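assembly run, all chains below
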Amino acid sequence: MNASSNQFEVAISSDYESGQALVERIVVAVGSAAFTSREVFGIRLAVDEAVANAIKHGNRLSPDKQVRIDFRMDERGVRIRIEDQGDGFRPEDVPDPTSDENLERPCGRGLMLMREFMTKIEYNERGNVVVLEKLHQT
Amino acid sequence: MKTGNISRVWQNDAQRLTKGFGQENDMSTGQRRLDIEDVGGVTIAKFVDKKILDEANIQAIGNNLFALIEEDGCRKIILDFSLVEYLSSAALGKLITMDKKAKAAKSKLRLCCIRPEIYEVFEITRLNKIFDIKATQEEALEGF
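ok done. output:
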């Protein structure tokens, strides 16, 4: 595992292909660390959801906007900061997708999956930056 | 036991190999999305993608799935996930829409061969309550 895979900052364009390439890069990096296959699965899912949200809902696929990613990994775990150039949103406004009335809605599950699979997720006040953390179990 | 199977694969420039199915390949991507098999009147649709994450893929897969009901008129459909290693919430959304279309058309839908990590996603989101999920293709065919 070299330094460049442990830590990098990158800005990608607001398209799904760039998003998937980034997700793959992160999966390769965390795959080289001491995460279980379930944890790698969860990190992939969470990062994919966060990046897709940034591209689609944040930047609205605008070619003029970018998504910035700051990836850091050490012996404690991994921290991924994802920032879009959109107006942001309020996570508390996203309805619970598991409630009976929302169960058959086709969207709204990404945030929940991020929370479930990561140790911690935090949004900034504006709602255009999310920080995902997955710590190794001690 | 599978008898009288008719296999069909969607791929570039693929011709329809069976009568009664109207699905063409997704021309926007040029890649096959589902392997289709007919087993005694039950349509088994097997995802060929390992990862159902990318939005463009999901759109193509969704179109293939919906066409099974809306164009091909399939009434009993099993979605086989045995090759699928990852899927995203957008893919779940397509499955929910598929389920709604199936109910509206009075078609029956079952899912099978979902690996544990992905089944956990169904459990977390409580979608295991909506879908009829079986462990194996044989179980899914039983009593269908």
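Chain A is about 35% helix and 25% strand.

Helices of chain A lie at 3-6, 16-31, 37-58, 110-117.

not gonna interpret more than that til we talk
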